[in-house]
Write a structure and sequence with these properties.
single chain; mainly alpha
Length: 193
């Protein structure tokens, strides 16, 4: 098939792989909430749990979570929203990368960093830049490896430096790993490793 049919097939496969797990988790959380959530600090929930779930959920809350407008019933489902949004862009970015040269990767990366920083309210959109690192890694991986192997200790040193700088990002440099700088920093460090 052509690009459109391949694109639609990819997106539908991602939706049917990710979305059913979301629905099952929300139904499970929704079914258990009446027995767990209590306004008087339920003994069934931890302090953290009770701080998240102060009031029982209503049907409107379930509906907003099913539509991924909100992720308050199951906070980790926010990553599913990111994956679904990324699935819309990954095929387009993949085709762009395959049809252009390596320096266009840099232009696209700068553009995605700009989009990520400008549209900070679109939480899922700002992570596209991290996925793009994964797309361009096969093309740039050899070059990164050559830089790392300039000396016998180069490979190990570059991995240690990447891990050390990643681990010290927040405590020493004040980088918030949830804003654009942090996302780029996190993805770049992971790429080097």
């Amino acid at each position: 098939g052509g690009f459109i049919s391949n694109y639609m097939g990819f997106v539908l496969r991602r939706v049917f792989r990710i979305y059913p797990a979301l629905i099952v988790s929300l139904l499970l959380v929704g079914a258990l909430m009446p027995w767990i959530v209590s306004l008087d600090e339920s003994v069934l929930g931890s302090e953290w749990f009770n701080s998240l779930y102060r009031t029982p959920f209503e049907i409107a809350d379930l509906w907003n979570n099913v539509l991924l407008v909100s992720t308050d019933m199951n906070p980790v489902s926010g990553t599913l929203r990111i994956e679904l949004v990324a699935a819309l862009f990954l095929p387009l970015l993949h085709v762009f990368t395959r049809k252009t040269g390596p320096w266009y990767d840099v232009v696209m990366l700068v553009g995605l960093v700009w989009i990520s920083s400008e549209y900070t309210r679109a939480d899922s959109l700002k992570w596209i830049v991290a996925f793009y690192f994964g797309i361009i890694l096969p093309r740039w991986g050899g070059w990164i490896e050559c830089l790392a192997r300039t000396s016998p200790m180069g490979g190990s040193a570059s991995i240690l430096v990447a891990i050390a700088t990643f681990l010290t990002a927040t405590p020493f440099w004040g980088i918030n790993l949830r804003d654009t700088t942090g996302i780029v920093y996190e993805a770049a460090s992971a790429s080097v490793v």
